[in-house]
């Protein structure tokens, strides 16, 4: 994959992820969190499974189990924790915590897979997180919602590494479909046992579900899994620092939330962090090109 295509796909994916926060916030006016996310992923997974029905399905119990485990972390864990945490913290704070994923990927990748990352990359994710925090005005408070949100970030990091490790065994769109189905079923079970589920049918609520199913799930997960399989998971995850920035901009457009001056400063830190994580230098880039002539 050439770098221009890679950057374009990253921007589309992170933009869709960012928009999901205000859209989800609107959706929670009409449904409970676990129930809304369960509907989202069961519908998205089922629809995508139909669209890719002619492609090879997971083979044997081992591959089915792997797709279910990824769904447990990626769909149920990440989004379940992110939305449930909003009972105690704001959607902005939830997105900040969720997007600590790149730092956790590097930590887990170092200790669990033996991956080697340079000091500049560690500095980059730290700078990027500072930018995310500045983007939201440093209003985070540590409470139960903070820890639930952090659990979602850990799930996100675990799913990122598992997709990189197991992704070659699957067609990525097939994996996206069945992990969403698995995660959606887990969320519906959680809804049945932990909340008084409801869904209010209105034009707005139906549009919210359609957006979350088509753009926020089918398009987003298909692109995300493709990027993880074809690139370095830590570098790809570093771009998640753009998600809360897009979330702020889309919240301004959709919800009328005002954009403060510190958003621009935070955005500059985010861009610097992404540059530090992804910049390889001339010698390393030349060696990488020699080993991978087709590009990224």
TrEMBL record:
Primary site of residence: membrane
Key word Transmembrane helix present: yes
Residue span(s) of domain EamA: 5-136, 144-278
Localization (cell): Endomembrane system
Membrane spanning stretches: 30-52, 64-89, 95-115, 122-138, 144-163, 175-194, 206-226, 238-255, 261-279
Keywords: Membrane, Transmembrane, Transmembrane helix
Membrane-topology annotation of the record: Multi-pass membrane protein
The keyword Transmembrane helix belongs to this UniProt entry's keyword annotation: yes
Pfam family, one: EamA
Family: Belongs to the EamA transporter family.
Name by which UniProt lists this protein: EamA family transporter
